[in-house]
Amino acid sequence: MLHNITLIPHLVRMYVRTRMEYRGAMFLAWLSQGFSYGAMYATIALIIARFDNLGGWQWPDMALLLAFHLLAYSLGASLSFTQFRDIEEKVRLGTFDAILVKPVGPWTFLVFSGLNIGYGGHVILATGLMAWSLTQVGLAWSPLLVLYFVAALISAAMLTAALMTMIGTTALVWVRSRHLFSIFFGFWELARYPLNIFPAPLQMLMITLAPLAFLAFVPVAVILGKPVPLLGAWAPLASLAAGPLCMLLAVFHWRWCLRNYQGAGG
Amino acid sequence: MRAGAYPAFALTAFQSRLAYRNQVWASAFGELVISFAFIAIWTAAFAGQVVVDGATLPEMITYVMIAGLLYWNTDRLINDVGEAVRTGDITIFLLKPLSYPASLLATHFGHYVFDQLVVTLPVLLIVGFSVGLLPPASLFHALMALPFWALSWLMLFTLGALCGLLAFWLLTAFALEWFLKGIMALASGAIVPLWFMPGWLSGILGYLPFAWVSYYPTAIYLGKLDPPATFLYFGIGLAWLAALGGFLAWLWSRARHRLIVQGG
């Protein structure tokens, strides 16, 4: 365990150095992704500008929701998305076997040897938008609220990482799992909007089987003091528990898949 | 190479997609979820109002569905060009007696037909039967929507191919793909139609080529333009397509002379 932890800085340093060899491409990617998300948010701002609100959410509230969504996603995805999306390719080519025989835990190696610093554009845009929206929504800050804000953000990032880990790891037994990310991103897109605008079955789905309501809507609604459908007074506790619980589930799933991994055949 | 050989690229692309059945149902499910999300968003935005800026809620639901059908994902096209440049596979195309842009057009037409038949059409049917979609405003608008659809596809292909070819200079297609995605989200009208935008913005975007991808074809279908305006905008769209097509041909002529294959 300690051995794995001491290796993490080395793995991260190696990966960052390889990425920094192509720093022009990396900064261009940050810029393009920031621009793309900015344009998408501009369309949402246009809808709200024309219709005044979306399900009772004004633009500053929506800006906080979008910023929280993007920041939590990018923090979680930097530890999971590309790493677990590409696991399918590693299984197919047999290179995953090489990871299993390395003198380091396979999860540690996978996650930290590919720690994605490509989310810089996401983080810059999200923190900028969050800073602006927090000045507009008029929150009554207290130590408890600050603590909840930070804890909910960490929980939401853990939720993202856990879901992506589970999806990607499925390739160890199914050989293919990349298609499941299409479903994830379908719900991920929904998670940008207030949950109360969706029909009840979809709300239920986003709180249970595809729990992406906890990525942004539930914590931001709690912070803003807005009602949370289905959860009500349980929303603060549920939003804090969602990330760790999903992470625990991901740990079990990862171990089960590893035990049942047989390669792609041949 | 004779022009008759290009349909083989389209057919191969179509058949290659059949091999990944899991990808098909996952994409269709993802598309269905997003479609219902957009319907919910517009329903919430209208919040009981019957008409806003001359558009009703059923019109907006039809608008987002048709606009979604027209706006196909150009990531595959841009990635194909980017990967061919990055790996050096582009040299194989240069050795063949074919036009690379034309082979891309045929290949991605095959992908488009596959996506429409297997992913978009089932989603449209489900939404049509469960929520309801409006028919074309008139026979004239129905007939004119077809050439606008073709124009939309060619316009988006040309824009995607132009972005892809820039990878010859930048040696990466990733950023180009995201830039185009951002521009299209705002300027194509696929998410928010131009009639809901401030006058100054719709005035600018209404004359840029991106609006011919989603906004004009859907507006024609819904009868938002009268016949003289329909022909006028079709003409402007053709002029844009000719200009962008010419630029693509010029860019390709430049790109193939500055090809760098690493380690060759």
TrEMBL record, chain A:
<feature type="transmembrane region" description="Helical">
    <location>
        <begin position="145"/>
        <end position="175"/>
    </location>
</feature>
<feature type="transmembrane region" description="Helical">
    <location>
        <begin position="104"/>
        <end position="125"/>
    </location>
</feature>
<keyword id="KW-0472">Membrane</keyword>
<keyword id="KW-0812">Transmembrane</keyword>
<feature type="transmembrane region" description="Helical">
    <location>
        <begin position="231"/>
        <end position="252"/>
    </location>
</feature>
<feature type="transmembrane region" description="Helical">
    <location>
        <begin position="202"/>
        <end position="225"/>
    </location>
</feature>
<dbReference type="InterPro" id="IPR010390">
    <property type="entry name" value="ABC-2_transporter-like"/>
</dbReference>
<protein>
    <submittedName>
        <fullName>ABC transporter permease</fullName>
    </submittedName>
</protein>
<feature type="transmembrane region" description="Helical">
    <location>
        <begin position="27"/>
        <end position="51"/>
    </location>
</feature>
<keyword id="KW-1133">Transmembrane helix</keyword>
<feature type="transmembrane region" description="Helical">
    <location>
        <begin position="63"/>
        <end position="84"/>
    </location>
</feature>
<dbReference type="Pfam" id="PF06182">
    <property type="entry name" value="ABC2_membrane_6"/>
</dbReference>
Automatic annotation (TrEMBL), chain B:
<protein>
    <recommendedName>
        <fullName>ABC transporter permease</fullName>
    </recommendedName>
</protein>
<dbReference type="Pfam" id="PF06182">
    <property type="entry name" value="ABC2_membrane_6"/>
</dbReference>
<feature type="transmembrane region" description="Helical">
    <location>
        <begin position="112"/>
        <end position="134"/>
    </location>
</feature>
<keyword id="KW-0812">Transmembrane</keyword>
<dbReference type="InterPro" id="IPR010390">
    <property type="entry name" value="ABC-2_transporter-like"/>
</dbReference>
<feature type="transmembrane region" description="Helical">
    <location>
        <begin position="146"/>
        <end position="171"/>
    </location>
</feature>
<feature type="transmembrane region" description="Helical">
    <location>
        <begin position="29"/>
        <end position="52"/>
    </location>
</feature>
<feature type="transmembrane region" description="Helical">
    <location>
        <begin position="230"/>
        <end position="252"/>
    </location>
</feature>
<keyword id="KW-1133">Transmembrane helix</keyword>
<keyword id="KW-0472">Membrane</keyword>
<feature type="transmembrane region" description="Helical">
    <location>
        <begin position="183"/>
        <end position="210"/>
    </location>
</feature>
